């Protein structure tokens, strides 16, 4: 429930952003080149910064250099196709939903090393999820992963916060030979310590490296959106944990790198001209 009606415009834009960035469903006639890694662009990031990512879409047009040279290492676009002008960042494709799974032929962009599974299949489309029941998700996961070229690491579906029960049902459906090498997951809330606990619990349960592909200091249950200072504190605590020895979180990407998002939401990390704002630069330094 809302604690203040003043927060309503902020949350509505946040929900719209969560919906908009996900609706780019891969074409059924992909022209992606044949799988290979021989001519991948050389990443500009150091090995450590290579863990730091961006969640973007076709509206982002992010000026990667504005984050600081070598500060960002990878991105995904809620699609199987890379974006233009991304300054040599590693691109990670995603099999966003059911149709993308059925359409996937195994063709991936040059240089692909990892591929992400379904985006929030546990929630409906009005909230930005791909809305796939767990039984169907297991069947479709087996379908598309059977076509992934050898050597590419596979991500499981990324469920929303609090959906471990769904994830377990998905695994039961997927079966004993379910192919996944790492577990993407999402977290929204206003307490970074809750994120730490959640990540540790996920890892303890499933024992696979974690990728936090969406996180922000915002609670979609209460409607609370953090202030700029709270966002920075949340980022600092979370990423300090990610970088700590034996952390289960292998890579992360903040939500979100969209030009208009920061106009009303302090979680936005781009200016309207697609350069990194103060929050974006702070994120990149951690």
TrEMBL record:
<feature type="compositionally biased region" description="Low complexity">
    <location>
        <begin position="26"/>
        <end position="44"/>
    </location>
</feature>
<protein>
    <recommendedName>
        <fullName>Asl1-like glycosyl hydrolase catalytic domain-containing protein</fullName>
    </recommendedName>
</protein>
<keyword id="KW-0732">Signal</keyword>
<dbReference type="Pfam" id="PF11790">
    <property type="entry name" value="Glyco_hydro_cc"/>
</dbReference>
<dbReference type="GO" id="GO:0009277">
    <property type="term" value="C:fungal-type cell wall"/>
</dbReference>
<dbReference type="GO" id="GO:0071966">
    <property type="term" value="P:fungal-type cell wall polysaccharide metabolic process"/>
</dbReference>
<dbReference type="InterPro" id="IPR017853">
    <property type="entry name" value="GH"/>
</dbReference>
<dbReference type="InterPro" id="IPR053183">
    <property type="entry name" value="ASL1"/>
</dbReference>
<dbReference type="InterPro" id="IPR024655">
    <property type="entry name" value="Asl1_glyco_hydro_catalytic"/>
</dbReference>
<feature type="domain" description="Asl1-like glycosyl hydrolase catalytic">
    <location>
        <begin position="53"/>
        <end position="283"/>
    </location>
</feature>
<feature type="region of interest" description="Disordered">
    <location>
        <begin position="24"/>
        <end position="44"/>
    </location>
</feature>
<feature type="signal peptide">
    <location>
        <begin position="1"/>
        <end position="17"/>
    </location>
</feature>
């Amino acid at each position: 429930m809302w604690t203040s009606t003043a927060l309503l415009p902020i949350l509505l834009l946040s929900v719209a952003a969560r919906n908009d960035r996900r609706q780019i469903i891969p074409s059924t006639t992909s022209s992606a080149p044949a799988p290979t890694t021989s001519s991948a662009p050389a990443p500009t990031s150091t090995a450590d910064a290579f863990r730091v990512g961006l969640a973007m879409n076709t509206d982002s047009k992010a000026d990667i250099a504005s984050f600081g040279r070598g500060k960002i290492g990878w991105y995904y676009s809620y699609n199987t196709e890379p974006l233009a002008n991304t300054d040599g960042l590693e691109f990670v494709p995603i099999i966003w939903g059911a149709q993308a799974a059925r359409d996937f032929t195994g063709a991936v962009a040059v240089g692909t090393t990892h591929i992400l599974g379904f985006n929030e299949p546990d929630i409906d489309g009005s909230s930005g999820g791909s809305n796939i029941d767990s039984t169907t998700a297991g069947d479709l996961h087996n379908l598309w992963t059977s076509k992934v070229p050898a050597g590419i690491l596979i991500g499981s579906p990324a469920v929303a916060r609090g959906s471990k029960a769904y994830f377990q049902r998905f695994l039961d459906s997927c079966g004993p030979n379910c192919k996944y090498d790492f577990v993407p997951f999402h977290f929204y809330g206003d307490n970074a310590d809750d994120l730490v606990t959640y990540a540790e619990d996920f890892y303890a349960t499933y024992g696979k490296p974690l990728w936090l592909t969406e996180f922000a200091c915002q609670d979609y249950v209460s409607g609370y959106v953090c202030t700029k200072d709270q966002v920075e504190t949340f980022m600092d605590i979370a990423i300090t944990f990610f970088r700590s020895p034996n952390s289960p979180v292998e890579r992360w990407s903040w939500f979100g790198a969209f030009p208009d998002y920061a106009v009303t939401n302090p979680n936005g990390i781009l200016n309207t001209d697609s350069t990194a704002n103060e929050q974006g630069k702070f994120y990149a330094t951690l």
